[in-house]
Write a structure and sequence with these properties.
Helix content: 25-40%
Structural class: alpha+beta
Number of helices: 2
Radius of gyration: 29 Å
């Protein structure tokens, strides 16, 4: 412990300071680093939720240049280009039903989705994904895409059951 005693303007001042050890110093930096790490994880989670809630995917099919551009539109104002493909890179547009695991209150459960995807040679790009309540809307979107873009793309339906 350190202390200092002084007399100023008729007042008697006693200042004390706790001493610290190397362990105190290490615990301080550990807590500081752990707090930053935890904060970073929470900020990343908040950013992921923000992206999910306040963004939308936008696909622009340019029939003059035969290009497809995918944008991530944030708050409906800020477009961020994710990728650009030529029409030749798209093998076909597929609608399918797919089952997968979903986290729910009782653990992992099976869920079925309707998915519209651009099938490329490298990986599929999801245009729309809807659950059982949105089957009609997803299929209407697929039919509209088929009518409007059927000249440039092949369309395929792949349903299991």
């Amino acid at each position: 412990m350190r202390y200092q005693i002084s007399v100023e303007d008729g007042e008697f001042l006693v200042s004390t300071e706790a001493s610290f050890t190397l362990i105190d110093f290490l615990v301080f930096f550990f807590c500081l680093l752990a707090g930053m790490f935890t904060t970073l994880i929470l900020w990343m989670f908040a950013a992921a939720v923000l992206v999910k809630v306040f963004t939308r995917n936008e696909f622009r099919f340019n029939t003059d240049r035969y290009e497809l551009s995918q944008y991530l539109r944030i708050f409906n104002y800020f477009p961020v280009r994710r990728r650009t493909l030529s029409f030749g890179d798209v093998e076909h547009i597929r609608i399918s039903n797919r089952q997968g695991d979903m986290l729910s209150g009782g653990g992992l459960t099976k869920k079925e989705w309707m998915i519209i995807e651009l099938m490329t040679s490298s990986k599929p790009i999801t245009i729309a994904k809807g659950d059982q309540d949105e089957v009609v809307e997803v299929y209407e979107l697929y039919e509209t895409l088929n009518m409007e873009l059927g000249t440039w793309f092949r369309f395929r339906e792949e349903f299991s059951h």
